[in-house]
Design a protein that fits this description.
Among the domains are: 95 residues, Glycogen Phosphorylase B (Rossmann fold), CATH 3.40.50; 29 residues. Helices cover 42% and strands 12% of the residues. It is built from 6 helices and 5 strands, in the order βαβαβαβαααβ. A 5-stranded mixed sheet has the order 1-5-2-3-4. Helix 5 crosses helix 6. Pfam families: Glyco_trans_1_4. This is Glycosyl transferase family 1 domain-containing protein. It comes from Rhododendron simsii (Sims's rhododendron).
Length: 184
Amino acid sequence: MGPTVEIVGPFEANELSEFYNAIVVFVNPALRPRGLDLTLIEAMHCGKPVLTLNFPSITGTVVLNEGFGYTFAPNVKSLVEAMETAIADGVEVLERKVGVCKEDVSSMFTADKMASAYERFFLCIKNAKYFSLASSPPCTTSPPPPPPPDEKDVADLATKRQPWAPNEVLNPNGGFGLLTDSSD
């Protein structure tokens, strides 16, 4: 990869904005499923295309199409090929992806939308009517979606929730790799 790729590790919360402003592409080289990876959302909110695994938890929720960045299979060869593609695409293609990231992710992952989704999820788990491990038979097929929680439960939880601070860092300890601008 040469001088265009720099490998870095976890950052403190106060270092994240400098990091996101310095990169061209956010590379998430984790080779195992991680669920909803907030580091990807953070990078995309900053208008950075991402290079990440093609697991369903990522391609089904965060990197919905190639306009958001690049995906790779969970092996080193595929990661290297995806990085080479990002480098070969050049600045023009990456700038188009930046526009897609800023526009789409800013509407998909707002603090209110994410907080509401987590509230609904935890209310369903809390209420035995919707979720019970003890009485559940082993899963052989996909279960039907649970009914929505009672509106009163949602309203009660919403009034108890702490306000979200816009400058709060959601996941400052993820592992990072990055592509830097070789002109620096």
